[in-house]
Amino acid sequence: MHFAVPHIGTLAAGPRNAISDVHGVTVGHHTLAHGAVQTGVTVVRPHAGDPYRDKVPAAAVVLNGFGKSVGLVQVDELGVLETPIALTNTFSVPAMAMAQIRQCIGANPESGRSLPTVNPLVFECNDGFLNDIQRMALGDEHYLEAWAAAGADFEQGAVGAGRGMSSFELKGGIGSASRRVAGGGHTLGALVLANFGKLPQLTIAGHPVGRHLAGSSPRWGEAGRGARGARDEGDGVPEQGSIILLLATDAPLDARQLRRLALRAGAGLARTGSVFGHGSGDIALAFSTAYTVPHLIERPMPAIAMLHDGVLDPLFQAAADACEQAIVNALWHARPVTGRDGHRRECLADLLASWRSLSQPPARTSP
Questions:
Q1: Cross-strand partners of 59
Q2: CB burial string 204-242: b at 16+ within 10 A, e below
Q3: What are the structural domain ranges in the chain?
Q4: Is the sign of the CA dihedral 205, 206, 210, 212 positive or negative?
Q5: Other residues' Cβ atoms within 10 Å of the Cβ of residue 293
Q6: Could you tell me if 302 and 293 are in contact, meaning their C-beta atoms sit under 8 angstroms apart?
Q7: What is the CATH number that goes with domain 19-353?
Q8: How many CB atoms lie within 10 A of CB 122?
Q9: CA 292 to CA 21: how far, in whole Å?
Q10: What whole-number distance in Å separates Cα of residue 156 and Cα of residue 360?
């Protein structure tokens, strides 16, 4: 019997408890799941229009830079998104970037001619334990199908870019959550691509779930193989995974404030047991849907009153809680996957027999 996943923090969730509770944000997946190919692409659209012509304010923070993303330099310089956000595996980053460029040229034929070039934005994690990443199986058509499938209701777990991902030596993947921001009537949503962590470090709502599983679960076996295939529960092999954390909000924030917001994603990540290891690519990006920035200089810039920095604390709390919740949701929604060379990841929901043991506060240790 499975039990409901714990609610993180004290803030209420939106109606979907997903990033799409921020009005206009949609998510789509395309999943490849056959034999040794266990991978996919996930596309996050900040609004229904063309972000090349109507850019979205954004900022990113690199918590640990062991990653191969595309587009971060220009986001840092200009403070806007001008494509949807694509998530995929490491070796598919160039293909997804090319798909974004071709899509932009199709909608804006003068891009790169009389109009500026487009800045594709693609994030990655390494799914090579379950997926034969060398096949580079993803192409333009898969990106476009994920883009076209984007909606307010979407799957989580082992889907899209999350299909081949591992987290805490279990099945990881796509997770999402949202929080209503206290005092301002705003919403903040998070979406993660979770592919990090060692099982004994896994902490959920303050409870040492990973230690419980590693020490007592009779099903713990092939589930406990590291991101590079080595046994790593207590064997000294470093944690080598990654996570991408996306935050969306309808609060009016500028790029500087969004960078501050993105940094708070690290608080939620740390609560789950991450130590931002040497080989981990941990990147957070935040964007606001409160306004757009026009591409053409002939169009007027928006006149928006930004929130005062002194009232950002509720948003910071929402960011930390929503990211922690999204990571937990990625683990909870994932199903077992067997992929390349028979490698397999079990899922948290199957391994954890009951949440009842977690219903009490964590035991205090003696001083």
A1: 286
A2: bbebbbbebbbeebeebeebbbbbeeeebbeeeeebbbb
A3: 19-353
A4: negative
A5: 18
A6: yes
A7: 3.60.70.12
A8: 26
A9: 18
A10: 28
pTM above 0.70, yes or no: yes
Sign of the four-CA dihedral 121, 261, 77, 284: negative
Find where tokens 């609610």 sit: 7
DSSP states of 206-274 as a string? TB-HHHHHHHH-TT-SGGGB-TTSSB-SSS-PPP--EEEEEEEE-S---HHHHHHHHHTHHHHHHHTT-
**Contact status, residue 126 vs residue 195, Cβ threshold 8 Å:** yes
Sign of the four-CA dihedral 211, 63, 171, 221:
negative
- Note down pLDDT in tens along the chain; length 367 residues: 455 789 999 999 999 999 999 999 999 999 999 999 999 999 999 999 999 999 999 999 999 999 999 999 999 999 999 999 999 999 999 999 999 999 999 999 999 999 999 999 999 999 999 999 999 999 999 999 999 999 999 999 999 999 999 999 999 999 999 999 988 899 999 999 999 999 999 999 999 999 988 887 555 544 444 443 333 444 566 777 899 999 999 999 999 999 999 999 999 999 999 999 888 999 999 999 999 999 999 999 999 999 999 999 999 999 999 999 999 999 999 999 999 999 999 999 988 765 555 544 444 444 4
Give dist(CA 33, CA 339) in Å, integer: 9
- Type of residue at 312: L
Task: Return the SS3 of 276.
Answer: coil
Instruction: Give the residue from 191, 188, 252, 247 showing the smallest Cα distance to 21.
Output: 188
* Exposure on the CB side of residue 299, measured as CA atoms within 13 A: 9
SS3 for 281? Answer: strand
Catalytic center residues:
242, 280, 282
134: which 2 tokens? 């060398």
Cα angle 202, 129, 37 (rounded to 5 degrees) comes to 125
At 332, the amino acid letter reads W
Q: How many CA atoms lie within 13 A of 221 on its CB side?
A: 2
Place of tokens 């909608």: 107
